[in-house]
Structures are given as structure tokens and as C-alpha cells.
Amino acid sequence: MSERLPALRVTDPAAFGRVAVLMGGDTSEREVSLDSGGNVLAALRSRGVDAQGVDGVPALLDALQAGRFDRVFNILHGGVGENGVLQGLLAALRVPYTGSDVLGCALTLDKIRTKQVWLSEGLPTPRYERLPRGADLRAAAQRLGLPVFVKPSSEGSSVGVFRVLAESDLAPAIAFAASYDGELLMEQMVRGDELTVGILGDVALPSIRIVPAGEWYDYHAKYVAEDTQYLCPGLEGEDEAALRALALRAFRAAACSGWGRVDVMRDRERGLQLIEINTAPGMTSHSLVPKAAGELGCDYAELCWRVLEQTL
């Protein structure tokens, strides 16, 4: 294998001290976070790290005030785990933590603002409409042209995502919008390959091309189905190099650091199109960053170690 990750910075688990693995919380992604967190906790312990699971930010704050932990492995998906609130709290308490800082997290949890930054940097992303509460979804769809996706600007794990192929498909999205408090994003649908690139430090990991058995990669295909195909690397040669370079540039443009995942589509006519960034990627049995790291000879436990190393 020609590619290698840099050598580990430390080999003694005592260097990390007492580690809180933050998971769960009260967002729509709670169950996925608990799954990810349980796996991370077991992996760190398997390598001798003094790690304990903590469910949610209030419990973490109590534990930190009691002096029980030295650093935090954040695997809290969505909400305060990824919107900069947790990161600001930990920075104020001078507690090291995994992943991006306040700015990178706050920016990238908001898909609309992320796209605005990418566009200002001349990076490719599908055309979109910002839908504040009360917006006319039918009018927005007419302006963009069908097909489109409608999704919350600040949720993850395919929660509240609607695929609109025809005007008759708008009804469920309109009903959801009526009960949803936040902004929605309507985005031109990209027809082509679905790709994702994990970022670990300064390295863009081998891409993964996702081939769901159904028509699209929804929540079921991500976390339940056993017949979704994950092809790694997703592309070859110069195409793969260009994809990974774009993902790393997009990650940095959005002020992200540490580790994360950049989702990209390859349109048949427009080429690569940036979709979104995840600053606390899933670490479940179906998750993609561990699969990509494995292509470079980095198993799950080593990946967790490498992410935690970034807090030193």
C-alpha cells in the first residue's frame, strides 16, 4: 500500500489522562450518537485509555466542575455538540476536545451559511434557496427547477430530508415546514455519484462512493440496511486526487480542523459539487470515516486514538 498516515505522536495511553466520551444528548440524532459513542468508548479502552462515557452536556459540565476529566472526545451528533456551543464552553473551561473549534462547528452545522462561504471561495456547490419559516416552497421550487431536495439547514443524519421529483411530491415537505421552527434549505438535486471524503488532520482519506440498494441514500440506507455498497476508493487516478483536494480545500475554507467528513456529489454535467461537512462524523458499524481509514491500514481503535491525539 503506497499511502501511509503519519506516525503516531504518542504511544502511552496515560498521556491522555481521564477522557470523557461525550455522546447521546437530546437531539434528533441521539440514538446514532449513543451507538457511535459506545463504539468509541470500547475502542479507547481496548488501547488502555482511561475513558468514561458521558450522556449529554449538562452531565459533562457537572463532571468537569468536579474535576473528573482532562479532555473530551466529542461524538455528540447535531445540536449543541456540533453548533459551537459545546466548543465554546470547553474552550472557556480550557478543556481540550476533539474536532473543530467554535467557528468551524457553528458554520458547518448551518448548511446554508456553509454554501455561502464556499461560493465566496469559488468552490462548486448546487444552487439553492433559503427557506425561512413561512416561505413558499412551491415558488422556490419553480425558481430552482425540479428535481430538488428540501432539508433542515441545521440537522444531520438525513433527518427531515425530502426528495421532490415532481410538484406533487411537495406536500410532505410543506407539511414538515409548517411544524419546523428553523430554516430549511432547498437545493437542486444532483444526479450522479454520491461520494464522501473523511478528513484526519491534514490528510484527506480515500474517498468512498456510496451505492444504496434503493433510489437514494436515506436514513434507512445509512444506519439500518445491510445492502448499501461502499466502494473505496470511490474514484481512481486524477479524479480521486481532484476529489480529495477539493474536499480538503472545502474543509479548510469552512474553518474546520481536526477531523470530519466532506460529502460531495459528482454531477454528470457539472462535475464535483460540494454538499455539506460533518464535524462529528458517525462512528457506527455503518459509518464511513472508519471505512476510509481502514484503506490506509488504520483500524477503528487506531482511528479513535489518532483523533484523540489531536487534543494534545
TrEMBL record:
Pfam families cross-referenced by the UniProt entry: Dala_Dala_lig_C, Dala_Dala_lig_N
Top-level lineage group: Bacteria
Domain ATP-grasp: 115-309
EC number: 6.3.2.4
Compartments it resides in: Cytoplasm
Cofactor requirements of the protein: Mg(2+); Mn(2+)
PROSITE patterns: ATP_GRASP (PS50975), DALA_DALA_LIGASE_1 (PS00843), DALA_DALA_LIGASE_2 (PS00844)
InterPro entries: ATP-grasp (IPR011761), ATP_grasp_subdomain_1 (IPR013815), D-Ala_lig_Van_CS (IPR000291), D_ala_D_ala (IPR005905), Dala_Dala_lig_C (IPR011095), Dala_Dala_lig_N (IPR011127), PreATP-grasp_dom_sf (IPR016185)
Task of the protein: Cell wall formation.
Designated name of the protein: D-alanine--D-alanine ligase
Source species: Luteimonas terricola
Gene giving rise to this polypeptide: ddlB
